[in-house]
Amino acid sequence: MTMIVREFRPADAEAVAAARRSAFPYLVTTASTVAWEVASSPTDRQYRLLVAEADGEVVGSSEIGVFHDSEEPGLAFANTSVRSDFLGRGAGSALVTAAEERLAGLGAAKVFAWTLEAPHAVTFAERRGYRRGRSSRVQRLDLTTAALPPLAPDGLPEGVALRTAADFAGDPRPLYEADAECTEDEPGDVAAGRLPYDQWIALVWEHPALDRELTTVAVVDGAVAAYSVAHTDGHGRYWSGMTGTPRAFRGRGLAKLAKHDALHRARTAGCREAFTGNDGDNQPMLAINKWFGYAPAVTEWRYVRELAA
Q1: Percent of the chain with pLDDT over 70
Q2: Are 78 and 266 in contact (CB under 8 A)?
Q3: How many helices (H) and strands (E) does the chain have?
Q4: Using alpha carbons only, what angle is made at residue 245 by residues 30 and 233, rounded to the nearest 5 degrees?
Q5: Which distant-in-sequence residues (6+ apart) come within 8 Å of 235 by Cβ?
Q6: Are residues 3 and 49 in contact, defined by beta-carbon separation less than 8 angstroms?
Q7: What is the mean pLDDT of the segment spanning 13-23?
C-alpha cells in the first residue's frame, strides 16, 4: 500500500466528509462544509487541510491552523480523523507528523488536538507526547422517540418573545454582540479575544450548516436575551451549536427556553437525531441537556503537545 499526505483538493471534499463521519459519527459534516472551511477561513488563521491518500483513495485528513485570535502567541491546532476501516494502517501517524512539521514551520509552540476517549486514540496521542487537557461531553437525543415537554404550556414569561435567526437576516449584529459576550465566558483551553464582526459573519453567520430557521433567539424588550444555534446536514442530523445567555439575562431560564424551542423546531422539520457537546466543567448546560433527555454518546479530550521548549 502506498500512503502519501498532500494538500486538500476541491474534489476531495466528499471523501474527507465521509472519513470524518466514519471517525466521528455525531458530527454534522458534509462535502459543502469541508470545502467552505478551506475556502473561507481567515488568512491569519493559516488554515490548511491535509489528506492521507492510500493507493489513490482519501482515507483521512488533518485540519491545521493557528489560534490567530488567542491572547497567547504560538498556539495551534491539528485535528485528525481517519476512516474507521483504516485505523492502525499508518494514515494517522503520517497525518500527525506532517501537521506538526507544518505548524512548527509557522512558529507554533503548542499544538492542541481533540481525541476520542477510546483506547486506540488515547494510546496514539500519549505515545506521541501529547498530554490530556479539558474534556468535552457529546450527547445524543433521539428526536423520533424523545418525550419533549410541550413548549411553554403556561405561556412565555412576561416580556419574552421567541424569534429565529432568520428574523435577523437584515441586521445580524445583535446576534453577534450576544454571541461574542457568551463566547468570552465559555470555558476552554485557549483564551481568545473577541472575534471581529466581519470574521464572525464569515465564520458563523455564513456557515453552510447553519439553519437560521431552526436557530431560536429569545428576545426581551427588543434585546437578544438567549439563543440556541442549530446546524443541520439535510439528512436528519441536528447539532446544537452555541447556546448562550448574555450576562444581563442570566438566571432566568432563557437558554433552556431557547433550546427547547429549537429542538421542537428541529423535530418538526424532520430531524431525527440531535447531538450537542459541552465542556466537561459546564455544569449548567450539562444539567439542561439532561433535562431534555440527552444521553451520553462519547467523551472527547483536548490533548496538547509542546513543539518548542
Answers
A1: 97
A2: no
A3: 8, 12
A4: 10
A5: none
A6: no
A7: 95
Could you read off the pLDDT of 134-157 as tens digits, one per residue?
Answer: 999 999 999 999 988 887 766 789
Cβ atoms within 10 Å, residue 181: 16
From the list 174, 271, 173, 160, the residue with the least C-alpha distance to 214 is 271
For 129, residues 6+ apart whose C-beta sits below 8 A from its C-beta are: 305, 306
The domains found in the chain, sorted by start residue, are 3-108 (3.40.630.30), 140-298 (3.40.630.30)
In this structure, the strands spanning 110-116 and 75-82 are parallel
Express each pLDDT in 197-251 by its tens digit.
999 999 999 999 999 999 999 999 999 999 999 999 999 999 998 999 999 999 9
**Cα distance between residue 122 and residue 130, in whole Å:** 9
Instruction: Map residue 161 onto helix, strand or coil.
Output: strand
User: Residue type at 120?
Assistant: H
Q: Which residues contact 224 (CB under 8 A, 6 or more apart)?
A: 174, 175, 177, 178, 217, 218, 246
- Kindly report the length of the chain: 309
Name residue 227's amino acid: Y
**Where does the chain show beta strands of DSSP type E?**
3-7, 48-54, 57-66, 75-82, 110-116, 131-142, 160-164, 216-220, 223-232, 237-244, 273-279, 295-306
Residue type, 191: A
268 DSSP assignment: H
As given in the structure block, the three cell numbers for residue 75 are 498556539
Task: Report residue 99: phi and psi, to 5°.
Answer: -65, -45
Distance of alpha carbon 170 from alpha carbon 175, whole angstroms: 12
Neighbours of 97 (CB within 10 A): 13
Q: What is the C-alpha to C-alpha distance for residues 94 and 238, in angstroms, rounded to an integer?
A: 32
Average pLDDT, integer, range 164-185 = 96
> Parallel, antiparallel, or unpaired: how do β-strands 237-244 and 273-279 relate?
parallel
